[in-house]
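Quick entry between incubations.
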Amino acid sequence: MSSGDFDPTAPLTPSGNLRRRRLFSRLAEYGATAAAVAAVAVLAIVIYTVVSRGASALDLDFLVKGAPDGIGPELVGTAIIVAIATAIAMPIGVLVALFLTEFAGSRSTHLVRLTLDLMNGLPSIIIGLFIFGLLVDHRKPSGFAGSVALAIIEVPLIARGSQEVLMLVPSSMREAADALGVSRWRAVLGIVLPTALGGIVTATVLSVARAAGETAPLIFASFIFDPSTYSLNPFESLPNVPVRIFQLSEEANPEGFAEAWGLSFVLVSLILFASVGARALLAKSRRKMAS
Amino acid sequence: MRPVSTTASPAVLNPANDSRACSARRRKQADRLGDRALYGICLLAALICVATIVLIACQVVNGASPAISKYGLGFLTDTAWQPNFGEFGAGSLIFGTAVSSFVALLLGAPIAISIGLYLSLLAPSGVRGVVAPLVEMLAAIPSVILGFWGVLVLAPFVQGTLEPWLHDSFGFIPIFGAPQTTGASIFTASLILTIMVVPIVASISRDLFQAVPREVQDGASALGATRWEVVRGVVLPSTASGVVAASLLGLGRALGEAIAVAQVIGAGSEIQASLFKTGDTLAARIANQFPGALTEMHKASLFYLGVILLAIGLASNLIAQWIGRRFTYGPGKALR
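Done. Structure below.
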């Protein structure tokens, strides 16, 4: 609009082009909101289905008995596999994070970080093929092979999460340790790690939540099992939750579906509680570190 | 403390101080040893990671070597897959992988970017604090459960409602062919993959949009730009490369997903124009057939599929890293 035809008495409401632009902007806002609503709705539908179909089967018997009445062996098997995986992955992940924050030069940082990113982006079925070739082929399937596969999935998650909190440790703490003549390793083990502990635990819990639901590697490592009896030896094939759900869904037998929904319900609730809890813990430890 | 005692000890000649100097020296040695040891095990852990990646590549290629030497590169275009007759080719699987992932990204990327915009620019902070974790929770649902849900809930809906509607409205386009009797189709698999891709792309793009300096956006607003024009003119152009990188990471996830796709795609072996027909992807074929593989050549061919998948996965990941690093505001921060 040129200044010549400016009418000072006109009401201050948008018209013509501006009105169209405003309208378009408003529509775009609605679109973005609708996208967010859609994502939350899908989550709600999935969770609602799992809860409504899985919770009804749930009672104490279902949790402790073997198939076809219950899911006890699978729960124990998954717990063993994930526990061993975490016992392998946590030290390696934390040490890699320490390497990145405390020791590495810029070139090795670059290489290690790239490696972690590639590990993180690796399709889990490839890790399954790897484990099959390394530990299962010409031997026998075992829960331990599954643990190693899950450890490969967990390491980059733990390393990245730990690295983030390690970088949040105030540099003044490291400088104070240096000024007191404390050696590097004492400073790291006595000051840096304890300060970052909350975040490291969070990263580990999140990685456990991720690993507990991984199916692809386990169908190579721990796939022949008897779901009706407990088995505790990690060097045998262990019954486990994700592979059992996969098998039941492939069998397409409506009686098995009830068990699969029950398994899904238990797995989803454990995973969601773990990730919500871990996030709350992270927020708390961040606040503590910031103050 | 320690430096003082060591420098002071030679001046004072008494046995107590002497032993203190000695212990200080020992402690210094222990410290040096401790430093070395800590550095050593940290380096070892890092090397284990690097070695793992290399080993994975070697092992998969090694497992595939009988198939590679037998079929060569013709494997990539051969569409026959008949384990009983010892005929193997990855053509239809590469097609299925490409189509299902592409459709997933086509549906998922705009939704995810919109969610990123909503969470970073539009949502009131209270809502943001609730919606953002919920969207991330979508990524936490195990793929096997999403696939199981896909078989029993999504597939009947797709087959009974969505596919007939799309076929009736847009049936003149060959990709919307007649619906099948079961809900298992490439289209259903794409929808499941969309659900998996959205949270990844959304959370990365949210971080990217949040990193766009406030002043630049305020400047555009002060010049009279509407909210959409700020997004279109300032936010999206300055984060474009990051958003592309995020989408590539999402694509990598979709390409590599095995279990959920294996559950809903229907394990077909033909190349068909219609999205509503069954198909199969590289990863899903491995997941479906490996536990019951018939012959060594069958296994080796499945490993060969793994090699192709590994190559595509690593390539999309590396390209995403490379594009992400060229990103202007806070280089690659969100992608780390």
